Amino acid sequence: MTPDDFMLGLRPDAVTEESHRLRRERDLSAAFASSGRPRSLPPARLLKIALGLAAAAAVGVPYVIGSAPAAAPPAAARNVVPTGHGTVAAPVETVDARSFLLAGAETVARTPERKARYWFSSTRTFDPVKGGGVLAVTAEAWRAPTGGRLVTGKDAAYVPARPGAPLPEEKSVDHGPMVLKTAIGGTLVSDGDVADLPGEEKALDAWLREAYRGAGKGLPAEAAKEERARSYPAFVLGAARYLLDSPATPATRAAVLRVLAAQPGLAMKEGVTDPAGRTGVEIGLTGGDTRLVIDRTGARLLSFAYTGPDRAERRVGASVRSAEVSGREVAVLSSGWVDSLGARP
Amino acid sequence: MDHPQQRFTELYDRHYRNVLGYALLRADRQAAEDVVSETFLITWRRLREVPDPALPWLLGVARNLLRKQQDSGLRGRALAARLADLAPAPEDDVAERVARREAALAALAELGENDVEALVLASWYGLAPAEAARVAGCTARTFNVRLHRARRRLAEALDHDALTLEERR
To answer: Rounded to an integer, what distance in angstroms lies between the CA atom of residue A40 and that of residue B5?
Structure first.
């Protein structure tokens, strides 16, 4: 017997095997639930993530707060086949914006509530570039209250192609586990919170008004102040931009459409083609700077567009107030619940 | 592997037993398990710093935590005695093997703890000298000296015991 053989015989395999079995679940849960998270993301990177998600998830308010794990991106430029919430409904015989939105709310409300571990969302952002055309970039997010994943910078491409032109991001980035909180007015909403929002129109309207008036702290306070300078209908439209592509329940999404339908000054245009090539109905406010494109059933957000002034990104700590780009369009390529990271609906 | 949670889970499943085995040399089971849990919490927070291979890094983290422990529950106990406790001989083992084991454990007890640790790192985990040296907090040369010395003395004890048994026959 060699010394090493003898030593190997002393290795406490029975004890370690038993311990692994007994401690595994607790240790993994403790790690994933810990307030500490992989410190792999230096602040600048974290902020960039938040910005990416803002663009990807169509955050209706000016910024998101990144606090732990998240996700991201896309497809060929303007030719993508979207998937949705699994809603199958007939196109609405449109009369006006209000009727269209209320019909969509009915459809969404009938959608069976399904919940899995992650809310997946794939979005492609189209930013205008000098000289014409757009720069398209996709982001994919797997969002969960305990942490998800964010992949940004996928499939970046100029449309039309610009051979030799450098891309802002040469390759996609998989940001480690992170949890994102989004500011709606003065209220921070986590992916867990959003699932608990009211599912009834009046209650949601009250919640939105409170958020509209809310002060918040830091960047949220700054943004909330600017939100208050806008009209409440404009605020609701911005919130809808976020909530309609979020882990909110069907009841909450239906309530969002109903609250939006109740706003004065709605404008509607049918037969609009979104940047992903899909036909839908455009909803906006007369003279407003944000427009939503909703599918013809009224139940699903296809994309949104922003035409207001450019606004530079602002960063404070782990918070980012995302930039607004005039002429930006963001298409929700697909979204829905999935059971595992990396899975798509 | 493209996701931190997945990577972390695989690291945990692959190395938990090894890290615990190492911690058990310097702490009782409860304390050792707590050290391993803390080791993996740190691993989770610093996941992108974890190199490949990960085991030397994990053992190094555990070692640092063990050194900070004020009460391991094992103060004053020799590493050799700890090893004997962790892997007791079968009750029905034959006398020859029992005698050899006792002789080898006695030889281990005569070694310094650093030398025993060198044997453990090499034999239990198959670490290369440079990797093991990082865990042990010494140079590869120092580690090799410790390992060579420990192997020689243990081999002598095992050989001597074998010779003694032969002479008895």
So the answer is: 13
Report the run of H or E that residue A7 belongs to, with start and end: helix A3-9
Closest CA to B57 of B110, B107, B125, B3: B125
Q: Output the tens digit of pLDDT for each of chain B's 169 residues.
A: 447 888 899 999 999 999 999 999 888 888 899 899 989 999 998 888 888 889 999 999 999 888 876 544 444 456 778 888 887 776 666 777 778 788 888 888 888 888 888 999 998 988 888 889 988 889 999 999 999 999 998 898 887 655 444 444 4
Put simply, the chain A residues between 37 and 96 with a CB less than 8 A from any chain B CB are 37-40, 69
Are residues A326 and A308 in contact, defined by beta-carbon separation less than 8 angstroms? yes
The helix or strand, by DSSP H or E, that contains position A290, with its residue range, turns out to be strand A290-294
CB atoms within 10 A of CB A249: 21
Output the six-digit token pair for A344: 């798509």
Angle of helix B79-86 relative to helix B113-125, nearest 10 degrees, comes to 40
Q: Quick check: A38 and B45 CB within 8 A?
A: yes
- Give B-chain residues touching A177 at CB under 8 angstroms: 3-5
**A10 contacts in chain B (CB < 8 Å):** 83-84, 86-87
- The rounded distance, in Å, linking the Cα atoms of A147 and A179 is 5
Spatial separation of the C-alpha atoms in residues A298 and B15, rounded to whole Å: 52
What is the pLDDT confidence band of residue A176, given thresholds at 50, 70 and 90? low
* Interface contact flag, B17 A16, Cβ < 8 Å: yes
ipTM for the whole complex = 0.87
DSSP assignment of chain B equals ---HHHHHHHHHHHHHHHHHHHHTTTS-HHHHHHHHHHHHHHHHHTGGG--SS-HHHHHHHHHHHHHH-S--S-TT--HHHHHHHHSPPPTT--HHHHHHHHHHHHHHHHS-HHHHHHHHHHHHH---HHHHHHHHTS-HHHHHHHHHHHHHHHHHHHHHHHHHHHHH-
Contact A295, A87 (CB under 8 A): no
Residue with tokens 């991106």: A73
